[in-house]
TrEMBL record:
<protein>
    <submittedName>
        <fullName>DNA-binding transcriptional LysR family regulator</fullName>
    </submittedName>
</protein>
<dbReference type="InterPro" id="IPR005119">
    <property type="entry name" value="LysR_subst-bd"/>
</dbReference>
<dbReference type="InterPro" id="IPR036390">
    <property type="entry name" value="WH_DNA-bd_sf"/>
</dbReference>
<keyword id="KW-0805">Transcription regulation</keyword>
<dbReference type="Pfam" id="PF00126">
    <property type="entry name" value="HTH_1"/>
</dbReference>
<keyword id="KW-0238">DNA-binding</keyword>
<dbReference type="GO" id="GO:0003700">
    <property type="term" value="F:DNA-binding transcription factor activity"/>
</dbReference>
<feature type="domain" description="HTH lysR-type">
    <location>
        <begin position="10"/>
        <end position="67"/>
    </location>
</feature>
<dbReference type="InterPro" id="IPR050950">
    <property type="entry name" value="HTH-type_LysR_regulators"/>
</dbReference>
<dbReference type="GO" id="GO:0005829">
    <property type="term" value="C:cytosol"/>
</dbReference>
<comment type="similarity">
    <text>Belongs to the LysR transcriptional regulatory family.</text>
</comment>
<dbReference type="InterPro" id="IPR000847">
    <property type="entry name" value="LysR_HTH_N"/>
</dbReference>
<dbReference type="InterPro" id="IPR036388">
    <property type="entry name" value="WH-like_DNA-bd_sf"/>
</dbReference>
<dbReference type="Pfam" id="PF03466">
    <property type="entry name" value="LysR_substrate"/>
</dbReference>
<dbReference type="GO" id="GO:0003677">
    <property type="term" value="F:DNA binding"/>
</dbReference>
<keyword id="KW-0804">Transcription</keyword>
Length: 319
């Protein structure tokens, strides 16, 4: 099909329908969101696939999943809707920026470390802006970002096929640590062996996450496996309470425990974890048309990350 013919026949409803399906991952839920019937959504999606000449969405009992072509098309579809929203803002009233909604995605281990100090300052820049924080593992965060559900995210790099249309800006490199309650039987030891460590309940991230992969790789490199009776959770709030209230030890990125270390509710065990560091950064769509409030919050997160880098350097030198 000729490009000019495609541009002539495609309609905004095709783009809106496709993005809704990508966001909801289910035709029925997309129909509810668009206030349409499911057959109408299915028909519109079929029209779009006929126009582009490829299958964009796989339908089945599992719901709706984007194909490889679907992921590529999504980047441009979201850009179209962003551009229209930007055009709307540009002709709106002067105080539009003050009433923006900023949608932020964040890893559970990064959110408590960077977002509170940034948001404390953010109110002075955009006192009326709504901030929606969506916490998820890295893969779902990238899906949310590419589907336009969040403006930007605090996350990690991923495989190239998952980073289509997404830029990564490094903020800092975060080590994996082992934390336990203050006064833990292992806390007074200058060096803790792994055989001693795994005698206690272990708290680890869920499967498919970078901290979980690093924990398992670290143990495997030393001839050990993750015990079958470990506690798995993506929730930082649950993991920290278990660690504080029991003798369980927690494998976690440093950012998740920094505040508890300062308050002496938790302390780091003397376990060498060199080589487990992972980069943390801002993920954003390169062509996203972000409003002033979103850009301000990103700048404040950069400032918070700079302070974290300085703090980590001081801690390393003191150690």
């Amino acid at each position: 099909m000729q490009i000019d013919n495609f541009a002539h026949r495609i309609r905004l409803r095709h783009i809106q329908c496709f993005v809704a399906v990508a966001q909801e991952r289910h035709l029925g839920k997309a129909a509810d969101k668009l206030l349409l019937s499911q057959p109408a959504v299915s028909k519109t999606l079929l029209e779009l696939e006929e126009l582009v000449g490829v299958r964009l969405v796989e339908r089945g009992r599992f719901g709706a999943r984007l194909t490889r072509d679907g992921h590529a098309f999504l980047t441009h579809a979201v850009s179209v809707l962003d551009a229209l929203e930007g055009a709307k803002r540009s002709v709106g009233v002067d105080n539009t920026a003050q009433h923006e909604a900023v949608h932020v995605g964040a890893l559970p281990t990064v959110a408590p470390d960077l977002l509170p100090p940034a948001l404390a300052k953010f109110r002075s820049f955009s006192p009326d802006a709504k901030v929606d924080i969506q916490v998820a593992a890295n893969a779902p965060l990238l899906d949310k970002l590419q589907a336009g559900e969040v403006d930007f995210a605090l996350g990690r790099m991923a495989d190239p096929q998952m980073m289509v249309g997404v830029s990564f800006e490094l903020l800092y490199v975060e080590p994996l640590v082992v934390a336990a309650r203050s006064g833990h039987p292992l806390s007074a030891r200058n060096g803790v062996s792994l055989n001693e460590l795994i005698q206690y309940p272990l708290i680890v991230s869920t499967r498919g996450t970078v901290p979980r992969h690093n924990t398992e790789s670290y143990l495997q490199s030393r001839g050990l496996k993750l015990p079958a009776n470990c506690i798995e959770t993506l929730s930082v709030s649950i993991a920290r309470l278990i660690a504080i209230q029991s003798d369980a030890v927690w494998f976690t990125p440093m950012g998740a425990v920094r505040e508890d270390l300062d308050m002496q509710l938790l302390q780091l065990l003397s376990v060498p974890l060199e080589g487990t560091e992972e980069p943390v950064g801002l993920l954003h769509r390169g062509d996203a048309n972000l409003g002033p409030s979103a850009r301000n919050l990103m700048d404040l997160l950069r400032e918070a990350a700079a302070l974290r880098r300085a703090s980590a350097q001081s801690w390393t030198l003191a150690k």
